[in-house]
UniProtKB/TrEMBL annotation:
Entry GO MF terms: iron ion binding; oxidoreductase activity
Transmembrane segments: 52-71, 91-119, 140-162, 182-200, 220-238, 244-267
Record protein name field: Fatty acid hydroxylase domain-containing protein
Annotated spans, Disordered: 1-42
Any one of the GO BP annotations: lipid biosynthetic process
Primary residence: membrane
Pfam families linked: FA_hydroxylase
Ranges of biased composition (kind: Gly residues): 15-26
Organism whose genome encodes this protein: Apiotrichum porosum
Amino acid sequence: MATITEVRERTANGNRGGEATGNGNGKDGEASTYSGKEHKWARPAATRENSAMLVGAYTPYIVLLAFTLVFHETPFAERFYTHLNAHYTCFQISFYGSLIVTTGVYWLLGFIFMAFDLVDPLHNWIKRWKVQPDVRPTLAMYREVFTLVVRNLVCVNVPVAFVTSVVNPFRVDVPLPRAWETLWTFFLTLAFEEVGFYCVHRTFHSKRFYASVHKTHHKFTAPVAFSGTYATVIEHFFSNLFPVMLPFYLTNAHFSCAMCFFCSLLMDTTITHSGYNVPYLINALKHDWHHYAFTENFGPIGFMDKIMGTNTRYNAWLGELKRRDVDGWLATGRLELAEKTQ
Ligand SMILES: [Zn+2]
Ligand SMILES: [Zn+2]
C-alpha cells in the first residue's frame, strides 16, 4: 500500500497548476482521461442523482402544466373567472393578480429554502443534496440579498406590471384556453426565455457590461434561492423580465396561461439558485455551475449552451465525477482519504 508521502508525491507530479490527473480504473501510473481543473463542486454522488434521472428534474414542470390543463377544464375555473370579471376590471386582475401570484410563489419558495439553510434539523436532512457542501448560507447573507430583492420588486416588478397591465393586460374576458393553446403559449414562451435570456446574459458577461451590470449577481459563488433576483435594475429588467414579457405581449395570452408560465419560471429561478439539487425538483446543477465557474451555462434550460458550446468544462467535470463514482477517486481524493485515516 502506498504511503501518504508517496501518494502526495504522485499528486504533486500529476497535478501541476491545479490540473487534475488520474486514470480510469484507479490504478496508479496510467494516462489521465481528464485534463481539466480539479473542483470540489458536486463531488457527493447524491448531488447528481436528480440530473441523472430521465424525467426527475422535469417533474415540477409536468405537475404544474398538468394542474393548469385540468384546472381549465373544471366548472370551478369557469365560475372563478366569471366572478373575477364581474367584480374587477382587466387592468385590476392583470396588475394586482400577477403581482400577488408571482410575489407569493417567489417568497414562499424562497422562505422554504431559507429555512433549510438556517434551521439545523432541516439542513441536516437536506445537506446530502448541497452542491457546494463547504458553503452554508448565513442570516447575514440573506439580509444582504433581501435589500436588492425588495428593491427590484418595488422598482422594477411593480412598474413593469403596471405599464403592461395598462398597455396590454393579460386576457381574462375571453373563454378559458383549450389544452393546445395552453401548451403552445407555454412552450413558445419557454423558447423566447431560453434564447432571450441566453443572449442578454452572455452580453452582460462581456467586458463592456459585466462590471456595471452583472457583477452584482455574481457576488455569491454559492447562491441561495432568493439571489435569483439579487441583481442591478438594468439586469433584472432586461435579463429576467423582458425575455418572458415579450411573447406574452405578442400572443395576447390568457391570464391563466401567463400565471402558469410565471410560476414555472419562479420555481426554476428559486430552485436553480437554492444550492440544492434535490431529486424530482428542477435541475440546480447547471446554474450553480455558472455561479461557481462563471464562464459557462448562460441559458436557463441548456439548449443554447449546447448549440453554442458553452458547457464543455461543465460536461467534462460531470463526466469525470461519474467515472470516479464507478472507478474510484483520483490521487487527490485518495490523498484526502489517506490524511483522514492516518
Ligand atoms: Zn452570469
Ligand atoms: Zn444566477
